Predict the 3D structure of the following.
Amino acid sequence: MRPDRTPWVLGAILAVLLVVGPFAPLWVVFPVTIAIAKGLVALGLMILLRCGLVSFGQALYYCIGAYTAGMLGRVFELDGVFTLMLAGMAVAAATAYVLGFLLARYRGIFFGLLSLAFSMIFYGLLVKSETLGSTDGFNVLPSTLFGIRPADEWVRYAVLAAASSVAFVAALLVHRYLRTPLGSLAPAIKDNEIRVEYMGASARYAIHVKYVIAAALAGLGGGLAATTVGHIDPEMAYWTVSGEFVFITILAGTGNVIAPFLGALIFEGIRNVAFAVSPNTWQMVLGGALLAVIVFLPNGLWSLFRRGRAA
Amino acid sequence: MQQLVAVVIDGIIYSAWLFVAAVGLTLIYGVMKILNVAHGSFYALGAYAAASIAGALLAGGMPPMLSYAVLLGAALLVAIVLGPLIERGILRFMYARDEVVILLITYALFLILEDVIKLIWGVDPYFIAEPYGLLGSFDVADLTYPYYNLILVGVAIACGAGLAWTLTRTKTGKLLLAVIHDTEVSRAMGINVGRFYMVTFTFGSLLAAIGGAFTAPTVSVVPGLGVEVIVLSFAVVVIGGLGSLPGAALGAVIVGLVRSATIHYLPQAELFVIYLVMAMVLAFRPRGLFMLAEARKI
Amino acid sequence: MAAILDAKGLHKSFGAVVAASDITAEVAPDSVVGLIGTNGAGKTTFINMITGYLKPDRGRIHYEGRDITDLAPRDITRLGICRSFQIPQLYSSLSAYENMLIGLSVVMRNHGVGGFFSRGRPDVPGHGRPAEEVADDLLERFGLAEYRDKNAQVLPGGVRKLLDIALTMAAKPKVLLLDEPTSGVSAEEKFSIMEMIMKAVRAEGVTVLFVEHDMEVVSRFAERVLAFYDGRIIADAPPEVALNDREVRRFVVGGELHRLDEKRDGAHA
């Protein structure tokens, strides 16, 4: 068995972010933090994609995470960065636990369509709720770190540090999970559920667990996005946002827990650069990139790091 | 009473619009097993082409009555140029891939086409109101409706009846049903499956473009026009059953009436009620109302 | 000795087609039972009912004294009844070795071993060794070592059958139901393949029920024969008795001989 280097690589990335962060300009820190938030969502989608499921409604949990964070600030005046993220995660996971009983029965395109329907229901609800600012959404309070409100020039870095620490822990846990018997069942579920059942395991249960984990990660990402951007609105649940997450996951590939974060970083990079260079063709650039990856790298960008090795 | 009449009439008009916008999606899925996200882009392209061409011709002194033919012609132009290009140029190389992967490819096409629209027509809105107001209006129970709405309903009926007739009464339709039933056997029997795919995709896209073209006179044509159409038509075809023509009709009527009823009685629920119906149908009839689940043999 | 498997009055129909009608059979532990009958006689339906894929309309199935009629396939599997399939059910995008590892990890999970908080590489329950070693050992026992790193998808039909059976052995079954284990294998190889399967399986004292069309294979390996015809069991006896039974000769063996003739004719033509 090859030594498992993933935890060390993750640790090194965290160290770099923490050390370089304070010196990085704001226009770098902000997209990197957003990329971490989206990377968390993509990490969850990767777990589902490994068993062949694509959710076109993951923005539901992203948005739930964001609104949970926002509401806690509005109603209870909570502003701790970790509290908000974890609360977003908890509410998202609880919702997914309930919906999972239904969704775990669906496969292929129908899984995608039903998750899409749920996210659009939530979008429709938010758009029409006046108290939550309907289509405009509302602003989220600036957050604190362990009860301390950092000085203005340090706020961005504080959020980045918190985000990268949380993402580090999440990635490690998922990495470990993927190696447990339940986690490693994913390719088996994708290939042949009948054999899974006749080995004595329940594919439906395994998918339900994966669905809840994926939602928890999306909720975490949503909570982070809310505190980073400082504003939330119903668009966060719209199908195009879900499409973005699927995009990142496909771009990245399912080879390793680092891949979704890398994918998110590249996605944000392409988008920001393309938008700055030519605001009317950035979607075209992204679409072209997605087509190229699907055609030339069916296992995503991560396969570039794994040339000659079994996936 | 008056409100009920309004609900029904609004519902029928909305259903007609939904049907035209969505029926091409179910046709393409039924034949090619592609859930085409770029369907909404064809809708938007149809609307832009119609608004700009009809606008230019009207400004050049074309008799206004001809504008309806121009709407249709604009949709045809969009579909005939882009349909074969996309199917022969990109999609046909992907048929071996997973259904979900092909869906992502069409998502990439959607992203690209969104910007193609901006490159061709810019970001400023287009209006052509003439065809909408030209025919005057009629009254039902003290409510006033422009006659143009009847054209929409007529277009929907013509599309549905034409499709049904083609599929069941013509030789081409019967061959197409053979392709749907068993692609491999059809190929072995000498049917040119590739050509059927190209024609199906083009025709499905044409229907979306017609939907957009005939909607153009009733709205301002702006970037992002097709984005909502995508999810709405997904909802419509999923409710009826992916790949089912009567299913798409039923789905359109259900969504149309439900939406119009909520707009009149419970406006807060307007948006989410459609997706609630979609989720409920998927929950109780996972393959839609007109489709049966398949059993797997071991 | 008490029966390990006890089916009583099983009945199953699909619309107007009766696939099983009043099937009653007891299977003694540590025995080998051959199931014979023409296609559509009810053999696979019988296996499908025992393993929970189909639920009988009437009748009960007991395993080690426990009613398993209403259990899900996975629960029946966990109790120790495993099966192979007419069409091998493999993880087709994975290698033979990875197939075994996944099978073993399910077994570990069912025993609560190797979960999220466990450390090191635990042994697979029942096998007493880490999964990697068990996987290679099982592949070896079924003559699959040379296919270890090949994708299941590209393996020849007979090899896929063997891998399908090797997978079931990962779960340490007490009762094994093999649906046509040697179909797709040439007549000359049938005996050696069956020999290998039986050796690997019987070494662990597993009770075996197998479906087979070749009467020579049946009489060589089965201790007892259940002959199916038209959804019923028409004979239940040791092979030398059952295969000479008048009804069996008429409805089952005759049919099989006819099939054999057809094959030979085809080969000569």
User: Anything to note?
Assistant: Chain A touches chain C at residues 1, 176-177, 180-182, 184-185, 187-188, 190-192, 194-202, 310 (CB under 8 Å). Chain A has twelve helices and two strands.
